[in-house]
Task: structure prediction
Amino acid sequence: MKTRIILALFLCIAASGRPQTTATTDANWPQFRGPNAAGVSANANLPDKWSATENVAWKTDLPGRSWSSPIVWGGRVFLTAVVNLGQSETPKKGLYLGGNRPESPKSEHLWKVICLDLATGKLLWEKTVHQGVPQTPIHLKSSYGAETPVTDGRRVYALFGNRGVFALTLEGEEVWSKRIEPRKTRYGWGTAASPVLHDGRLFIVNDNDDKSELFALDAKTGKELWRLDRDEKSNWVTPFVWDNGRRIELITPGSGAVRSYDLDGKPLWSLSGMSGIAIPTPQAGDGLLFVSSGYVGDKLRPLYAIRPGARGDITLQPDKTSNEFIAWSNPTAGPYNPSPLFYDGRLYVLYDRGLVSCFDAKTGQVLYDRQIIPKGLAFTSSPWAAKGKVFCLNEDGVCFVLGSGDKFEMLHTNALAEDDMCLATPALVGDRLLIRTAARLYCIQSKGQSH
Result:
């Protein structure tokens, strides 16, 4: 039971996605892990060395505590934040027991969307979209602002689980909102699955212990387009839009099954055989879809590579690792919190306890397995890649920079201030890196690159 309760906590942090995997040099970063949810940049000027003072273009203190990632459009940075007007308990770093808080706080909270200038970090506007007392609890280590917003360049869409979804103009004017009924989550850990956008539709997964659902909204008006019940309990996975060349699929991992739908909600295929908690966002690359779950309390912690074109139930037969639509699988390779990273033909998996594995993306061949990141400790943020390097940011604000390739190679580390706590996944915006900590947002930019 100890392992069961052990910390399926950081759950409330991770994901948002759109399909393909091409690296980007763009100055826009519209969702969690950026274009196509890939977490990859091809910008040659993106910094790979920094500290709390070195290569810091600016840093801006943020109100409240939230673990959503920053997003960027048109030179503006958008974030969510939830401010407790009463006393907040300080979260702890690392893997630990005792973080469940079964009672909701009694104090007033402010649910906010914030806009900063990318060039200077100056506050452009701040909008309180709701004020009230939370109706559901969260784990000590999580926040009421765990979901990453998403933008299409016309509006910013901010989802606050168990509260609602809010659409704002880029100038901060509310366009529409839709209430979400509060529901119980496992052990009161809270919510985290971010919304995703595709072709004018906003897709939201709401897995919980009362009534799990998947629904689509018209991004312009907020009108509900369709809604489906899900045979799931609490999970924390953002859906993923997979454009595989044959069709566009909405991928929704869960602990009961991975399910694929077309954009009108029609079921396409399903895959059973996940761990008891699903958190990581899928990835796509080399013509394959990579889906995983790795709850630390389970023996089955799978990683699957799925081919396009599947129909019906594609669950593996006992003792099999592949079939017509599963190119390869590994029953114990799945990560718990950090999402996998596809980069240059390889799939990198970062584990919460400071281990990293690398696989040949096409074949599943293990290139290296669970190499120890020295003094890495706890990881919740998802890794990213640029300039032939893989970056792994731990909760202490230390980023471990690895060489990409078939062999494990530690290059160097970058450390922020000792009081920084990092659970949010950074944004890669042109030649800038945006790192959100518990207290502030850093803009990292190499000297000589600022304008």
